Amino acid sequence: MLISTINHVVFRRLLLTWYKSHQRCLPWRITKDPYKIWLSEIILQQTRVMQGLPYYERFVAQYPSVAALAGAKEEEILRLWQGLGYYSRARNLHQCAQTIVAQYNGDFPTSYHALLTLKGIGPYTAAAIAAFAFKEVVAAVDGNVYRVLARIFGLTYDVGTSKGRKQMHQFATLLVDHMQPDTYSQAIMDFGALQCTPVSPFCTTCVFNNYCIAYATDSQKTLPVKTNKLNKKDRYFDYFILQHKDAIYMKKRVKSDIWKGMYDFYLLENKQHLVVDQMDDPLFILARSYHLPITTFEKEERHLLTHQRLFVKFHKIDLTVAFLQEAKQLFHQFSLVPFNRREIEALPKPILIQRFLKKVDLS
Ligand code: SF4
User: Fold this and answer.
1) What confidence score (pLDDT) does residue 47 get?
2) In the predicted model, what is the mean pLDDT of residues 40-68?
3) What b-and-e string marks burial along 10-48, b requiring 16 or more CB atoms within 10 Å of the CB?
4) Residue 154 near ligand 1, beta carbon < 6 Å
5) What is the pLDDT of residues 103-154, one digit of tens each?
6) 37 within 8 A of 129, measured Cβ to Cβ
7) Is residue 215 within 6 Å of ligand 1 at its C-beta?
8) Domain containing 258 — which CATH number?
9) Is 313 close to ligand 1, i.e. is its CB under 6 Å away?
10) Atom of ligand 1 at shortest range from CA of 212
């Protein structure tokens, strides 16, 4: 294994010099307000900067303080979050804001370890807030940092394992600039995002190319090492749009599953798609007895989540008054509630449902 000849002092100097002329002008970078820094860090988890920026701006405009966010309704927050995915982040954001108001009088805790006790704040986010807002000497280590350090120093720690991430974290901690941990952390993240990019890094113009092991050994593609043990689970959803005139029946997802707290249509899930004529669900037995026709939309939608692949079919049933009267109890049992189109627009919904409603004419 080759060892980089760069020492920590030179590494920091080159990085900070690079940052002076390349830093991104982002609203959460020019503030020391821990609320805004926290908000940006939660929004940017698993999200590209350009996609997250408008969400950040909308959240700051609607909830300018942690107290305003704590006082909001969860449904409003989920609606504003709609389209970003990973909705547990939004629910944790709300709970965390409420804890800060209730237990810390609305002031963010100022240390890494205290931040780490809050809901939805993991080691990276706690370190980012502690470093950016309070200048604590801690390493905020994300995917950008793994990549930069692995390539320059030729580190082969497997960041797909907790052991490898721990080793990387220990290494990163030794490099943090004690005088300016905030600027240093921002610099290394921007360097990973702009110069040492995952695919096709800009090596020929890079300030580290005299020292970089990946460049010397042409191993940019294999560093950082990350074994991928993620097996995606396949799920088959059959959604039923139960419609009567302008009203569509929807329900709130309350179980601990994807999209908790959001609204979707009546859903049946099975090991494969359902054969509509053979369904023994009580609602369909009743629908058949009323000879209600079921229309199936031809196209199967595919929706990818981090750990799951969803195969989704949509069906529509136009309901009659007589059916609705008899099905009252069942609808209540399934928590199905009628909403008109304007009300549906305001509900927090999975993006899959939002897209379907936009695409299809249900009049
Ligand atoms: S030389 Fe290439 S791989 Fe090495 S740090 Fe620079 S951009 Fe990254």
Assistant:
1) 87
2) 95
3) ebbebbbebbeeeeeebebbeeebbbbbbbbbbbbeebe
4) no
5) 999 999 999 999 999 999 999 999 999 999 999 999 999 999 999 999 999 9
6) yes
7) yes
8) 3.90.79.10
9) no
10) 4
- Distance (angstroms) between ligand 1 centre and the Cα of 152 equals 6
Lowest mean pLDDT among 54-58, 108-112, 135-139, 281-285: 281-285
94 vs 294, more confident: 94
The whole domain housing 42 covers 8-217
Q: Which two tokens stand for residue 7?
A: 């020492």
AA letter at 292: L
CB 120 within 8 A of CB 96: yes
- The closest of 119, 42, 115, 120 to 81, measured between CA atoms, is 42
Q: Please tell me the distance from the alpha carbon of residue 283 to that of residue 269, in angstroms, as a whole number.
A: 14
Copy the structure tokens of residue 348: 């927090």
- 50 and 180 together in one domain: yes
- 1 pLDDT tier (thresholds 50, 70, 90): low
DSSP letters, 94-138, are HHHHHHHHHHHTTPPP-SHHHHTTSTT--HHHHHHHHHHHH----
Q: Are 60 and 186 in the same domain?
A: yes
Q: Which of the listed residues 15, 148, 210, 215 should we mutate to test ligand 1's pocket, taking the one with most ligand atoms within 8 A of CB?
A: 215
Q: Which ligand 1 atom sits nearest the alpha carbon of residue 207?
A: 6
Does any ligand 1 atom lie closer than 6 A to the CB of residue 149?
Answer: no
Q: What is the DSSP letter of 45?
A: T
Q: How does residue 230 score in pLDDT terms, banded at 50, 70 and 90?
A: low
Ligand 1: centre distance to CA 214 (Å):
7
Inter-CA distances, 53 with 57, 159, 186, 191, 198, Å:
6, 27, 17, 19, 21
4 lines ligand 1 (CB under 6 A): no
> Do 172 and 203 sit in the same domain of this protein?
yes
Looking from the CA of residue 220, the nearest atom of ligand 1 is 3
Q: Provide the domain count of the chain.
A: 2
pLDDT tops 70 at residue 229:
no
CA–centroid distance, residue 267 to ligand 1 (Å) = 49
- Tokens representing residue 358 in the block: 């936009």
Cα 148 to ligand 1 centroid, rounded to whole Å: 7
Secondary-structure percent of the chain, ordered helix, strand, coil, rounded to 5: 50, 15, 40
